[in-house]
Structures are given as structure tokens and as C-alpha cells.
Amino acid sequence: MAWTPVLVLIGVLSAVFLFCTRRKRQRNEPPLDKGSIPYLGHALEFGKDAAKFLSQMKEKHGDIFTVCVAGHYVTVLLDSNCYDAVLADTQSLSLTHYSQILMDRIFNLQLSNHDPVSERKRVDQYFKGSNLSRLCSSMQNNLQVFMASANPQNPTEWKKDRLFDFCYSLLFKAGYHTLFSTENNNSAEYTEVYEEFRRFDKILPKLARRSANKDELKVASSARKRLWELLCPDWFFTGTVAQSWMQTYLQHLAEQGMDTQTQRRAMLLQLWVTQGNAGPAAFWMLGFLLTHAEALKAVKEELCSLQHLPLDKREDTPIFNSALKETLRLRAAVLITRDVMQDKMIKLSSGQEYVLRQGDRLCIFPLLSPQMDPQIHYEPEKFKFDRFLNSDGTEKKKFCKEGLQINYGNMPWGAGSNLCPGRHFAVCALKKFVLMILTQFDLELCDCNARMPPVDLNRYGLQLLSDGRKRLRHREVTQVPGPAWSKP
């Protein structure tokens, strides 16, 4: 009997070893790299710093390779000219399975009757045309209200704050009010939703990777339950108030047969999808501008030339647009993942063909290609506010690699059918926020020699990377002649 546990352990280890060693590269399949640790493979390197690990694999194997990650075989595709054709094949490549796994892990949400096609159509309609104009106008008004409430009582005083917290709090509250709330909400609720969301979001990467400890799981569970209560009060299900985006989505779930509990849980997912990146994006853009004097000067001069126009008419801003694209190029690090439902042949730009094996997982990482590819962007690690401008000041749309034009020079919003449906609203919100800050406030870093902080490696693939170690001081500008950003 004493030998029984030992024999069981030997059996388990043998099974794991056989599982990890039996995989062989078949004809026309991508290069296979199983790593040195049975079963785990490259899981540790991937989890520690995905960008660094995938860069090393790209250097070793090229634009396509398959790696073992904790028992799963993941094929990584880094040829951006192939992305559209690959992602368009929804029959061979499925988004649903892996997304359902993550929804369960992170949000404790199971959408058994989920119809992503129907949901996408509804979202597309909500963020287009007159609906988009209405949302942008509402976002602008809400931003002005929350910025006014954040001002010091004495407009001539400097107020110190953490730049990250300042950006995240204002954009989150304004976005939440625009997309989710009604006249029944109040400022205390906005603050509580934001604080609970931040508690939950800090642990979210560990929930996704199943690496949270007991205490972290307890905090995440507590914040999640409170957010379920706050996001879906009972009166939202009565239909007696005007519809917001929140109620529109609830109606969609009800039509698909989801019960009230599931609807409540789904709203936290929507909150994270719509509000999780706006604040960090604004932080990075303002941070880059404040640490690059030439960029800040160029953006301010462009905005100054539009001062005579109403805020909602200041749309012709190619320099501002380029600076925003450059910010997202450097910091948007989304992993696009699909499950391979059946063997699929793909053709690279070089003309070489490879077979994706059924049961594997496909991963596309635009941060590496095209965003940080030195053959596409000269000195890709540097912030160059005019990178997306032609010599005549117009928008630069054409980028080349090895003499050939590529489909994308930047992919912060995805590609093809994977494009974020709310991207136009997100850009509108970011533009209005940064424009208000630069034209209505004096803004500077407390440490004039400060540099941008490193990225948070734990958030690779999940969200725009963020770090909150910057501080600012800002002062509301009085109505005096001259540029609104002149210092006292």
C-alpha cells in the first residue's frame, strides 16, 4: 500500500512526459518549439514578459511558429499582411471557445446561448451615425462636468495629483455616465463604481492566468459582487426609464434567454470592455507629450489655431491625431486569439504556406508586428509624434516592409472583422479629454526631469498597459488674452 502513491505519481508524470514529447512537427506545419520543461513548455517565459519572449521566438523561427504553453500548443502569426485573410475565416478559426473560458475565469459569467454575430450588429448600430454623434456630445458634456468638479476651489492654486489616477478617474466616470447611467445616478455612485472597478481590475490579469492567491481571489470576488449590484439596480429591469447603452444590452441578453443574474454579470464584462482602456490611454498620451517638449509645442500650436471654434468643431487636428496613433502604437498590446477548429492552410507574404493544426490555438500580437517592427517603423521604441504624418502635414497611410506596402502600420483596434466597433467613440473621448486638459488647464509634471515609467508586463495581451507613478499639477486658466496654456 505504501507504494501506491509513488506508483500513481510515476504514472501521472509519465503521462505528462508522453503528452509533451509525442507532438511532432508535421509536413508544412510551422516551426515547433516545445521548450525544455515537460507540459509547461514556455509558459513561464510567456507569462513573465510576452513581448520579449515572442520577440526571441520571432528572431529564432521567423513570422510563424508553434510553442507549447502549459499543455496547449499556440501558433503565433506575426506577418501582418496575413491578418485580414486569416481572421476572416470564422469557420476554421473560432473566437467563441476561448472567450467563454476567459469570461468564466474573470467575470464568473457563462453565456451558453451567446450569439456574437447578433451582438456585434447591435453594437455596430449603437456606435455609428447619429447614435455616435449623440454619444460624443454627451461624453463631451459629462467630461466638462466632472472636470469642473475636480477643480480646486481657488482657480489660481496648483493641485497635485497622480497623472494616472487623474486621467483614469475622470474618463471612467464620464464614460460610465455616458454609456451606462441615467438620471437616477449620483456622484457618490460614480465614485464607488470606479473604486470597486479599480480593485477588481488590478487582479484581473491574475484571474485570466489563474495565478491569483487566496487573498486576491477574496478581494476580486468582493469587488465583483458589489459591481453586479451597482451596475444593475432593480429599477433598470422595469423599463420605466429612458434607455442607455446598458439597458440596450440588457434587452439584447433578455432576447437571447439570459436570466436576470446572468444579465447583471454580463454588465461587468461590458464595463471593462468599454472603460478599461480609456484612462490608461489618456495617461500615456499626456505623459508622452509632457516628456517630449517638441511634441507638446506642436500639439498646442495646432489646438491654438482652432481656439475660435466651438469645442465640438475642432476636428481638423492631424498633428494631434498622429500623436495619439503613436501613443497607441507604443502601448496598445492586445493579443488576438482564435481556436483552430479544423486544419487550415495559410499563406505568408513570402508565398510560403503553412498548415494550422486542428485543436491548436492561433495568436496574433500586433504590438510586435506591425507596431514595433523596425523594418516598418524606424527606431520603433521611440515616441515620434509626427510618425503618422507625411512631409506636407497630411495623414500618412502607406507603410512598407522590404520594399512592399503593408496593410497596416498600426493596429491598436484590431484588424478586419476583429476591429473594435467602439473605436470611433473611444478616439472621440480621448481627443476631447486631452484637448480640454491642454486648453483649459496649466499642466506640468512635478518633476521636470521625469521620464515615462516602464510598462506593466502583467497586462500584456489583456489591456492597454498602465503605470501610475507620474504626478501632475494643474491650474484652471482664467480668461486672459494669449494662449490658454501659458504658465503663470
UniProtKB/TrEMBL annotation:
Heme binds at residue 420. One of its GO terms (cellular component) is endoplasmic reticulum membrane. This is Prostacyclin synthase. Catalyzes the biosynthesis and metabolism of eicosanoids. Catalyzes the isomerization of prostaglandin H2 to prostacyclin (= prostaglandin I2), a potent mediator of vasodilation and inhibitor of platelet aggregation. Additionally, displays dehydratase activity, toward hydroperoxyeicosatetraenoates (HPETEs), especially toward (15S)-hydroperoxy-(5Z,8Z,11Z,13E)-eicosatetraenoate (15(S)-HPETE). It is found in: Endoplasmic reticulum membrane. Its EC number is 4.2.1.152, 5.3.99.4. PANTHER family: PROSTACYCLIN SYNTHASE (PTHR24306:SF4), PTHR24306. Its cofactor is heme. It catalyses: prostaglandin H2 = prostaglandin I2; a hydroperoxyeicosatetraenoate = an oxoeicosatetraenoate + H2O. The keyword Isomerase applies. It holds the Pfam family p450. GO terms for biological process: prostaglandin biosynthetic process. It is a single-pass membrane protein. The keyword Amino-acid biosynthesis does not apply. One of its GO terms (molecular function) is iron ion binding. Belongs to the cytochrome P450 family. It comes from the Eukaryota. Substrate binds at residues 105, 111, 277, 361. Keywords: Endoplasmic reticulum, Fatty acid biosynthesis, Fatty acid metabolism, Heme, Iron, Isomerase, Lipid biosynthesis, Lipid metabolism, Lyase, Membrane, Metal-binding, Prostaglandin biosynthesis, Prostaglandin metabolism, Transmembrane, Transmembrane helix. The lineage of its organism: Eukaryota, Metazoa, Chordata, Craniata, Vertebrata.
